[in-house]
Write a structure and sequence with these properties.
homodimer, ten-stranded mixed beta sheet
């Protein structure tokens, strides 16, 4: 069963990716970047798919971003330019990345001299060079050096180390996971810190040829951040219920949906679908973690997926008629990236309406 | 790299399953069942592994339990007797199960005449018979018929339908996911409802040769439930942080652990490990969902995994020294079953201390 025409023939739960919508999302983000002079380096964590990565590259992306070394090795099949936006310096990862750097452009973002030294050592062993971006914490407080001065010190260390090359600055504004209307102030702070850092590096003769920002929530506000050269949004390719809730997309932009079957209606005011946490993840909706439920019910606006077991999704009905046993229900996941990672296969809806089997090439690549 | 001796050689994040502990857990639950005259039908959802399933069968299990049809097809490699504790009646699943029923004992738990009719039709097409357990809701309110009378009516329907065979009653006491000390009252209610149902069926000449209870939290209280013939615990084979928190096991019984590497210490009072929600799941701890963090830090009793991204686990240090970059940290997941489902491979720690590669045979089988 490699291509089918009737959605009701798909075994459920089935993840469906609507390619016309994906194409529109890719073109729209590429257009935004072009119009503001940014380069686009999409994060492949959302789709983990060579086919989608190639579509992004064909639409003008300059390369792809990944988090882990094994993902880099896979996604290099779709691009010659890979950024590992992760401190991937331990021996097994550094070896994989150094090997890859012999045939592709490889950059890694780091926040320690320890990481620089280990990557340099691996590059030296492989007879190659790895590009380094200094990871600057702009407010999410996860990774990243803690000040402009610390960024300068780390940049100077990179500059003085053989077998690595200083390429610029990377940051992740994860703390601006906020409705678009609330982003102005935190993005102004990000902008100020970046300006300060860039000026400091310039005064010391260091290059900031790349200043790489990221994230779908803030992507279309990037022109308010001074000094930025590129962005790394990932989720925008499919979007999800979080993005709808944050106002970062419209419902119709959600390209990935999960089609489920109703397997039980025995309990009053409830129906059970065959999609639980093994299909959807347990990720909650950022704006209403305790009340929004696990995914957006496209055709049942009042109902709520109130509880997930591993294989059961319990839908609390609130005014809707009880769906028939065996009927289909469609959901938009709260967080599409880890959801895609759960699935061995997805179904692409092609331009002609047929469904073809999709492979998640970099699924489960956690090393 | 199929067998290694030094744990520090494993690429991280690495799931390690300690086989001596698994063997002890399997023997202990088998011993409990023997001493009370229960049969044991472990739920394979926790390990999804033919090797572990075979160990359970060798220790006296009468068969294995699964949730989905594709899991049944895989786990049938370890047993001749499979119970699908799930209303798996839609056409693709019914066809898989009917085919399997030609060579193995297959039973399915259902809560609707619709499900019975569809399974019967599939069994007829395959020229076989499927055993049916009536799913009785004992208080979790997820699936299951809602009363003894409803159970009787469904049992009578099964009894009058060709190509299926009435084998008894199944229930899942998911609402007794409570500390052992708080289980007495709800289990007494379960016991009373079961007694009433069994007596009703007996008066109507219907067989209850199987009365199947389940779940690790209540497993060792099963002798307080009258009428039970078998139990279906799953998690007991590995246990997890939820089980420690609920008092259903000791820390030393936790057979599956995740070994991680420290990749960043740039942010004060924090360290970041290379295990996020793609390694651990976002499942929270049942007794303290907002405060306990994402997994139990075996060697850092004061610290807490306070936030997960997909590839980052942020550990909030509370008094501990900051771990060295590149050093290893070990975690016990909150909920081991969906965690195992995230991994393409695990590492078995053999009796001789070597680590061998393990396959999760039924990983990702959601159909």
């Amino acid at each position: 069963m490699n291509a089918i025409t009737d959605i009701n023939q798909l075994p459920t739960p089935a993840v469906i990716v609507d390619l016309p919508t994906v194409r529109r999302n890719i073109a729209s983000m590429a257009g935004y970047c072009r119009s503001h002079g940014f380069k686009l380096r999409p994060h492949a964590k959302t789709h983990k798919s060579l086919r989608i990565g190639q579509m992004q590259m064909e639409a003008g992306a300059i390369g792809l971003t990944v988090a882990k070394a094994d993902e880099a090795a896979v996604m290099a099949g779709a691009t010659d330019d890979v950024l590992v936006a992760y401190p991937a310096f331990d021996a097994p990862r550094a070896a994989i990345l150094a090997e890859l750097a012999r045939i592709k452009m490889v950059r890694v973002s780091v926040d320690s001299t320890h990481a620089v030294d280990h990557l340099a050592e691996a590059a030296r062993s492989a007879g190659t060079t790895i590009g380094i971006l200094v990871d600057l914490d702009v407010g999410f407080h996860r990774t990243g050096v803690q000040s402009s001065d610390a960024a300068l010190a780390l940049a100077q260390h990179v500059d003085q180390t053989n077998d690595v090359r200083l390429d610029g600055i990377m940051f992740f504004p994860g703390h601006v996971f906020l409705p678009a209307s609330a982003q102005e102030k935190p993005l102004a702070d990000v902008s100020a810190l970046l300006q300060e850092t860039i000026q400091l590096w310039t005064r010391h003769g260091l290059s900031t040829s790349i200043v790489s920002g990221g994230s779908t929530p803030t992507a279309r506000q990037s022109h308010h951040v001074a000094g930025l050269t590129e962005i790394r949004p990932g989720t925008y390719v499919y979007y999800d219920a979080n993005c709808v809730a944050g106002g970062w997309c419209q419902l119709e932009d959600c390209a990935a949906r999960v089609v489920c079957t109703v397997v039980s209606t025995a309990v009053e005011r409830k129906c059970v679908i065959d999609a639980g946490s093994k299909t959807m993840t347990s990720d909650r909706r950022f704006d209403a973690p305790d009340t929004a439920g696990f995914g957006l019910l496209v055709d049942m606006p009042l109902a709520r997926v109130s509880r997930l077991s591993e294989e059961h999704g319990e839908i609390e009905l609130r005014g809707e008629a009880v769906p028939k046993l065996g009927s289909r229900i469609t959901l938009i996941p709260n967080h599409i990236c880890p959801c895609i990672n759960l699935h061995d296969r997805i179904w692409f809806r092609e331009d002609d309406g047929r469904f073809t089997r999709g492979v998640i090439d970099a699924r489960g690549k956690i090393h």
